[in-house]
Design goal:
- Helix 1 crosses helix 2.
- Strands 3, 4, 6 and 7 form a 4-stranded antiparallel β-sheet that branches. Strands 5-14-13 form a 3-stranded antiparallel β-sheet, with no helix packed on it.
- The protein is α+β, with helices and mostly antiparallel strands.
- The protein is 23% helix and 24% strand.
- The chain has a single domain, classed as Alpha-Beta Complex (Creatine Amidinohydrolase), CATH 3.90.230.
- Bound molecules: 2-amino-4-trifluoromethylsulfanyl-butyric acid and cobalt (II) ion (CO) (2 copies).
- One cobalt (II) ion binds next to loops.
């Protein structure tokens, strides 16, 4: 990868997009794998009766035991070490003792690890006990949407190609893409330029170049795209109280395509089988 210290390009709003070099990619790989293995570790703990506060404690302990700091703790005042968003919660759910997971729930856990100043940001859906078919379908579609977006990542491709691909999967199944939150550039900074829209037009938007690092994190709602924030100032829920799902990977543009920094080491990619061949350049996938 031909990037130099201080290399950057400008996004459409004039913000600097840092181009990371091979040393940075190695560091992002480490941070990404700590976050992904933390999500793997949670799998056996996400069962009916567990509180989201208990899951948060497991995340906090796991990260610190693996040389990482939880990026969300104290971030703009966020009080916990991860975000946990069940059912109709879209994102940024605050772990709490009185939020208890029940049989049939779906839930997103979003973990961001900081290792040596570098961020690793990833989230995944989990099934709590026996989950009904419609909720499982939403989870599968959301995973497909994320992977369809990632399959568009390569030098010369444009961010509109990525956004169109994620939204096309949502629409194909009658779901809607949340527009109030977007993916983001990431590196030494948690949320950096560019914005990664989960909708768009092919052939539009920023051109991808080697060294760009960002997240792909589509949120799909069963009903309308509208969301509402609770009085805690963080928790976002669907306006119509329909179910919402999200997956998130942190990726880097390489000279030949894409590197996914946050692939699950255990192979726990998605808790339901992929729905369709909605992506072509995806890496090895398996259900668990
Ligand atoms: N990890 C989230 C993301 O994917 C951000 C959470 S910020 C918090 O970008 F403050 F809500 F924790
Ligand atoms: Co993110
Ligand atoms: Co995240």
């Amino acid at each position: 990868m031909k990037t130099y210290p201080g290399d950057y390009v400008l996004d459409p709003t004039g913000r600097r997009v840092v181009l990371q070099d091979a040393t940075a990619f190695a560091a992002l790989r480490v941070a990404g794998q700590v976050a992904a293995s933390c999500l793997d570790h949670l799998t056996s703990f996400i069962v009916p009766g567990v509180s989201t506060a208990a899951i948060d404690r497991i995340v906090d302990t796991y990260l610190r035991d693996h040389g990482a700091i939880p990026a969300t703790l104290g971030y703009h005042g966020f009080p916990k070490s991860c975000c946990i968003s069940p059912n109709h919660v879209v994102n940024h759910g605050i772990p709490a003792e009185d939020v208890v997971l029940h049989d049939g729930d779906i839930v997103n856990v979003d973990v961001t690890a900081i290792v040596d100043g570098w961020h690793g940001d990833t989230s995944r859906m989990y099934l709590v006990g026996d989950v009904a078919a419609p909720a499982r379908h939403l989870v599968g579609a959301t995973y497909d949407a994320m992977m369809a977006g990632i399959a568009q990542v390569a030098p010369g491709q444009q961010l509109g190609d990525l956004g169109h691909a994620t939204d096309a999967v949502a629409r194909r199944y009658g779901y809607s893409s949340v527009r109030d939150y977007v993916g983001h550039g990431i590196g030494r900074v948690f949320h950096d330029a560019p914005d990664i829209f989960h909708w768009g037009k092919p052939g539009r938007g920023m051109k991808l170049v080697p060294g760009m690092v960002f997240t792909v994190e589509p949120m799909l709602n069963q009903g309308g795209p509208g969301i509402r924030q609770l009085a805690d100032g963080w928790t976002n829920i669907t306006r119509d109280l329909s179910l919402s799902a999200q997956f998130e990977h942190m990726v880097g543009v390489t000279s030949s395509g894409v590197e996914i920094f946050t692939l699950s080491p255990a192979g726990f990619h998605c808790p339901v089988p992929p729905l369709a061949d909605s992506f072509s350049a995806a890496p090895a996938l398996s259900a668990f």
